[in-house]
Amino acid sequence: MQDFLDNFANWESLLRVYPLLLQGLIYTVCLAVVALPLGILAGLAIAVLYSFKNRWVNISLLIYIDLFRSFPVVVLLILIFYGMPFLGLTLGSFTAAVLAIVLNNSGYYGEIFRAGILSVPHGQTEAARALGFKPLHVVFSIVLPQAIRNVLAPLASNSLELVKATPIAALVALPELLRSARVAQEQTYNPTPLMAAAVIFFVILYPFARWVARLERQALKAR
């Protein structure tokens, strides 16, 4: 037991490197706070455009969704960060990580929102148009509020997965929580910082995970 505490719960090592972990936590939170709303907005835009049922627009959107969902987000980040400079565009680590996460998740969000829109009875749309509502007014005032309520559980679940994907930024030397913990481990020659990073992720994400599970149970009961 003492060996375990010395290696994975060494308070002396933790006190030496906690500023590094705090810095990493700040970067992780910033990455999630920026990428999450951008991913949701991009997915919402995809679903709204798809709802207008323009053949060529829909084909383009399906290609976009399939393309970026087919790439693992890690591969996408590597292509963006190391490949785009050959095209004359160099992005910083933070920007590249946000872009990779948003591109990958926007397709999933788009499909979730699209399913929500399709779940709204078409008769409501026809009735609104018969009353003189403009297409955008119909979508944003009548369809989307119901659609979001119908797919709140998968939206929350995908958001949780997005936040869990933020450690990929370590691959491009962004000092988020995982990379900071690894640097701290190298400085202390002790895995305690990695254990601390795992505990921090758990403390932050566990309440969110429980909320997602509650939403999923409510969605099952409502069926």
TrEMBL record:
Q: Which residues cross the membrane?
A: 20-52, 73-103, 194-213
Membrane-related topology note? Multi-pass membrane protein
Q: Where is the ABC transmembrane type-1 domain?
A: 25-212
- Where is the major localization of this protein? membrane
Where does the protein end up?
A: Cell inner membrane; Cell membrane
CDD domains named in the record: TM_PBP2
InterPro entries named among the record's database cross-references = AA_ABC_transptr_permease_3TM, ArtM/GltK/GlnP/TcyL/YhdX-like, MetI-like, MetI-like_sf
UniProt KW keywords: Amino-acid transport, Cell membrane, Membrane, Transmembrane, Transmembrane helix, Transport
Q: NCBIfam families given for it? A: HEQRo_perm_3TM
Q: What is this protein called?
A: Polar amino acid ABC transporter permease
According to the entry, what is the taxonomic lineage of the organism?
Bacteria, Pseudomonadati, Pseudomonadota, Alphaproteobacteria, Hyphomicrobiales
